[in-house]
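Inverse folding, one chain.
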């Protein structure tokens, strides 16, 4: 091959290379145009969303300058886009939040550890007119060749906060009013208690004093009603005061031996039971562990259950009430059972309701007793339930967690 031929071959191969490069460049240009169009479209889509959003959408660059500001941001903060672009984001927050904001941006840029990114925070914003207002802020971040950017979506929550404050205020007012009312009820009930106790005593005295005297039927009826109605009022006031005390003060927890209380309650009710021919006995497991409880309130529970058993005994040939105290898997179980009237099954789950009495129940009573009993047992971390069979009898059973602590002397 002579030199001319060689040159010709080289030129041809260079031409081929040039053609290939040209084709590649055209492909690259067209890919670039597609990417550019997609980018423009995505930008347009973002702008259109941002434009119509009700929330402020604000972006800043890594120098903390505002680079994007939507119309909602203008409506919320009062600045036009021209006024804020290029300004530091700190103009949008009250003075005291600025150092923390700058620290947060710096921390993220150096460590990449987000404090606020990806979650919603309630902070304060500052309007152009200088007014501070509560905002809900959710922050996201993205990084390009030009650096890291932050976008905040901001909602003005002034109305919501105001509504929350109003609800809180009204709740507090209602709480105070209830408290005042309850104090008043407590005062009245307390002041009425002594005269009522005296009336109960006087009625008893009159009945005894006039016993055997020739009295007409009407006088006898008045005497008996005086006695029974005054006792009803006495019970009512006692239940009312107990109920208020249970709801408004925490129990004083100490180790308590329930068997001792069971025996005390038996002593207290002995006379009445003897008078009515009721056998009242106690059956206690050996080496019973103490429960953590309020002595006075737990005694109140036993007293209420035994009083109910006496009250609802009906006319039984061998009336019997039994208090059994046993241990079962870390709990002390107390069972107060009777062979009295029983409770119709449809009412069993209602007897613990406030003011509930089984329809047709006679005698004194407010329907508060078992409500108070349940509150007390539950405030000790225990539970109570009823097992009953109509005409055969009833058992109220409550379970309290046992403690290993030694019983405090006295
Ligand atoms: N041992 C019981 N036997 C039968 N019924 C009972 C017994 N204890 C409670 N009850 C029923 O449950 C109701 C609610 O009892 P309680 O809250 O103590 O109210 P109260 O004794 O003031 O009526 C009673 O009115 C009665 O109908
Ligand atoms: Mg009762």
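Residues assigned per position:
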């Amino acid at each position: 091959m002579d030199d001319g031929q060689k040159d010709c071959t080289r030129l041809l191969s260079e031409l081929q290379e040039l053609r290939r490069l040209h084709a590649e460049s055209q492909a690259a240009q067209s890919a670039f145009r597609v990417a550019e169009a997609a980018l423009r479209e995505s930008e347009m889509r973002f702008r259109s969303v941002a434009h119509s959003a009700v929330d402020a959408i604000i972006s800043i660059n890594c120098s903390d300058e505002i680079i994007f500001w939507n119309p909602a941001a203008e409506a919320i903060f009062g600045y036009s886009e021209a006024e804020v672009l290029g300004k530091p984001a700190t103009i949008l927050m009250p003075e005291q939040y600025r150092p923390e904001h700058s620290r947060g941006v710096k921390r993220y840029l150096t460590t990449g550890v987000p404090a606020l990114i990806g979650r919603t925070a309630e902070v304060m914003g500052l309007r152009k007119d200088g007014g501070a207002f509560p905002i809900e802020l959710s922050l996201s971040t993205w990084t390009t060749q030009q650096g890291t950017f932050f976008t905040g979506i901001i909602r003005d929550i002034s109305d919501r906060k105001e509504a929350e404050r109003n609800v809180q205020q009204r709740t507090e007012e209602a709480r105070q009013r209830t408290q005042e009312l309850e104090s008043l009820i407590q005062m009245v009930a307390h002041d009425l208690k002594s005269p009522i106790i005296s009336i109960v005593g006087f009625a008893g005295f009159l009945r005894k004093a006039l016993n055997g005297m020739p009295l007409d039927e009407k006088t006898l009826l008045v005497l008996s009603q005086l006695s029974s109605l005054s006792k009803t009022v006495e019970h009512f006031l006692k239940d009312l005061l107990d109920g208020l005390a249970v709801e408004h003060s925490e129990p004083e927890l100490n180790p308590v031996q329930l068997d001792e209380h069971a025996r005390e309650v038996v002593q207290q009710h002995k006379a009445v039971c003897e008078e009515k021919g009721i056998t009242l006995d106690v059956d206690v497991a050996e080496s019973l562990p103490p429960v953590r409880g309020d002595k006075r309130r737990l005694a109140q529970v036993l007293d209420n259950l035994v009083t109910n058993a006496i009250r609802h005994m009906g006319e039984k040939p061998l009336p019997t009430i039994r208090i059994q105290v046993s241990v079962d898997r870390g709990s002390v179980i107390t069972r107060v059972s009777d062979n009295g009237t029983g409770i119709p099954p449809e009412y069993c789950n209602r007897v613990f309701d406030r003011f509930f009495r089984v329809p047709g129940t006679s005698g004194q009573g407010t329907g508060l007793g078992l409500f108070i009993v349940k509150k007390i047992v539950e405030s000790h971390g225990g539970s109570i339930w009823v097992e009953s069979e109509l005409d055969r009898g009833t058992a109220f059973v409550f379970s309290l967690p046992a403690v290993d602590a030694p019983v405090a002397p006295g």
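Confidence is low (pLDDT under 50) at residues 405-410. Residues 387 and 395 are 5 Å apart (CA to CA).
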